[in-house]
Amino acid sequence: MTRNMTPFNKPSLVGDEIANMRDAIVRGQLSGDGHYTKVCNAIIAQMTGSRAALLTNSCTAALEMAAILCDLHPGDEVIMPSFTFVSTANAVVLRGAIPVFVDIDPRTLNIDPEKTAAAVTQRTRAIIAVHYAGFPADMDALSQIANDHGLVLIEDAAQAFGSTYKGRPAGSLGDMAAFSFHETKNILSGEGGVLTLMRPDLLERAEVIREKGTNRSQFSRGQVDKYTWVDIGSSFLPGELVASFLYGQLQQADKILARRLSFFDQYNDAFADLAGSGRVTRPVVPSDTTGNGHMYYLMLRNRADRDAFITHMQKEGVNTPFHYVPLHSAPAGLKYARFEGKSLPVTDDVSARLVRLPMFFELGEDISKVITSARSYLC
Ligand SMILES: Cc1ncc(COP(=O)(O)O)c(C=O)c1O
């Protein structure tokens, strides 16, 4: 990266992260489930309107826990978009089950409820809705499908911390949700994530799965007199250094949200005329939702136009990456998954045309450079 390059993302300290890490060391517990993990779990449950929250090492880990909680068996199917990160699908494949990819809505880029309903079979056990760019999927329609067929509804809310749907926060919209605190996300701890639950009946097993398949959490609370191996599981919990850093970020969640939303609005205003003339497509904020300023993307005319834009921006000193490569046509997708219908045309089209603009807490005045550089290509 050249010295004056504007990165796509940059992690920032926003509050008491370092002081908290020191305090965690002084407190004398660096393994998981100490003071900072507990305060993070409590504040996240409150912020997401969920019944319980369990910090994990990543959103990937939270999705793997969710897949175990679904009790998937080989041959079971889980419906999800192909326009997502590999972890959504891997969590299912690791249980021997089959991801069934369906197309996305061309306006919201979220899973299409009609296509979801059409993909339900006797083997379907769950739906995973990804809230792309932080904008919640059409959860009422998906809940209806899940209820009609007795399916578990999981939110892959990796990007959606702080977003709402019909006044309800992401994390309270399905049976369980997985969030990411990876350094590219709004609230970050380097690597990190959380599983939130709306069903209290899942909590006891979730705690066991997260603690290597043992009832150690119950033991710590004095509910059993020794802890032992009771179920499958893995080491899904982070240590206290990560949790203490995360707590510093969570305390500043409102400030981070406001700053990112202001960048989103600045971008949106700057490209309004080009959207009006049809030169680009801007993000569509689905009705009844509020976003969290996680991402700002543009869609260009076609793949060649998008790739030329990325090259131009690189020359201008701005990093503007593309996003998901569709999973249904990826090597592992062909091997482990199937998709609904003959093709997923919206997914292929969006993946070829979408480009993301820099978005991070300290973007500041660099946003003018990004906008000027982008307009010099687009106008
Ligand atoms: C939709 C989605 N799900 C899951 C993940 C995985 O998150 P993590 O890196 O915290 O495991 C990502 C990562 O960006 C994502 O975009």
TrEMBL record:
The keyword Protease does not apply. Pfam families: DegT_DnrJ_EryC1. Keywords: Pyridoxal phosphate. The modification N6-(pyridoxal phosphate)lysine is found at residue 185. One of its GO terms (molecular function) is pyridoxal phosphate binding. GO terms for biological process: polysaccharide biosynthetic process. InterPro entries: DegT/StrS_aminotransferase, PyrdxlP-dep_Trfase, PyrdxlP-dep_Trfase_major, PyrdxlP-dep_Trfase_small, WecE-like. The keyword Transferase does not apply. SUPFAM superfamilies: PLP-dependent transferases. Transmembrane segments: none annotated. Belongs to the DegT/DnrJ/EryC1 family. This is dTDP-4-amino-4,6-dideoxygalactose transaminase. The lineage of its organism: Bacteria, Pseudomonadati, Pseudomonadota, Alphaproteobacteria, Rhodobacterales.
